[in-house]
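Annual report, structural modelling task.

Input specification for the flavin-adenine dinucleotide complex:
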Amino acid sequence: MKSQISFWMTQLDEPLTPRATLTSDITADVVIIGAGYTGLWTAYYLKQQSPDLKVVMVEAEVAGFGASGRNGGWVIGGLLGEERILAKLGADARADMHHILQGLPDEVGRVIQKENIACDFRKGGVIYAAARYPEQEKRMRSWLANLHSLGYTEADYYWLNPSELAEQLIVDRAYGAVFSPNLATIQPAKLVRALARVVEALGVPIYEKSPVTDWQPGVVTTPQAKVTADWVVPAIEGYAATLAPFDRYQLPVQSLMIATEPLSASVWDQIGLNRGQAFSESSRQVTYGQRSADDRMIFGARGGYQFGGKLRTDFHLTTAETELRQYLMGEMFPVLKKANITHRWGGNLGMARRFMPHMLLDRQHQLALSGGYGGEGVAATNLGGRTLADLILGKQTNLTRQPWVRKEGSVYRLSRWEPEPLRWLGYNSIIRSFVHEDQTLANPHAPAWRRKLALAIAGKMESLMC
Ligand SMILES: Cc1cc2nc3c(=O)[nH]c(=O)nc-3n(C[C@H](O)[C@H](O)[C@H](O)COP(=O)(O)OP(=O)(O)OC[C@H]3O[C@@H](n4cnc5c(N)ncnc54)[C@H](O)[C@@H]3O)c2cc1C
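The model returned the following structure:
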């Protein structure tokens, strides 16, 4: 089972033997559906603040089965859509938001240290490299200027010229990069499995192989038994398709990854990344990578979307899916063009209609919800867990006042995805325009007019997303 989930899971010492299944009806103060980071962080912060609260978790498979046990391990000091949120805020609110978001990797690191979790946490920052075609430099410079106009400083995000970039990351065609120190890398499966043990030790039972098949206010039903609780926390993110009505608000989109065999020191001398930095090559293919603690190159890129919001369950990558990732990686690092790919996997992540996360407390339906992180959920789930804990405990805090906490307080008022076939057509048209842009710009012989047109179409399509 480990290898069917991800490369990361294969590195664990423990077997993935499921914990007990829920076999008889129980009551609790809070029931959490899903034992990924969102559910586990929520349980953790609830128990930190209110040790006597009765919190239980029900998980369809085993803790970490979802995206939390599969991801790229970027602990990002930011949120999907944060620039659009910041643009609407005044200076004080911006400063507050910067403080919260930039502090996310440190908060994750603090708990990791406090709870003695070994998950290869390294705060080495992130390199958004313009590394494949010249248009990437313009795009990255304009992104940097926008971040600075929104109140981020030179200490938060700064430009690396090609020779500064080469001190950290050696790429074939270096045009420069945006660097941010506010990102850590982790071994994600080690974190999620350890967090499950931590919350269990705090008195939170995790019932595994117990899929929730129905939800009503205050009651969740699994195949053998029910949990009745004051609050239900659906922490199912990319699996929202499994449980109505959450499927209307979070769409399952895939991200797919590859890992090489451990690479020799001489190969790493030709790449860099010697202090835990993460990197991306900054195209709209949404690529991300890191050097694992055992010296593999871990590299991922955006995957597809299935008609009707159908959940993808088989993550044996097709030849085309593997080759695309290998091609993108080889474009950056020619030394890896023929590298031995030992692992291929992927997972479902949850995309909200407004392409930014939402958190809310819905009193009428006894729900506390956090999700829609897109591909930027590792740190955001920590924010979600802390925020939901405050909301459930009735605390008005700086976290509960933030703009991603939805004031309307009803799950049914979140923006819905369009019905099919509009969703599928829309998503695929946008992705096609991104692929077309990438293929055109990566072709050094493409004439200027074709490059401009491809950029304009992809840019327009991207703006339609939000
Ligand atoms: C390949 C990949 C790479 C990524 N890389 C990054 C990255 O580098 N950085 C980053 O910030 N984000 C990344 N993400 C996104 C990030 O991993 C997720 O946003 C985050 O893990 C979501 O955590 P979660 O707990 O909300 O959901 P999940 O981890 O998906 O957990 C949901 C859990 O709910 C369970 N479940 C589902 N349905 C039911 C049900 N009906 N009843 C009971 N249980 C149920 C599932 O089995 C699962 O364990 C990536 C995602 C993927 C797929």
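The longest helix spans residues 422-441.
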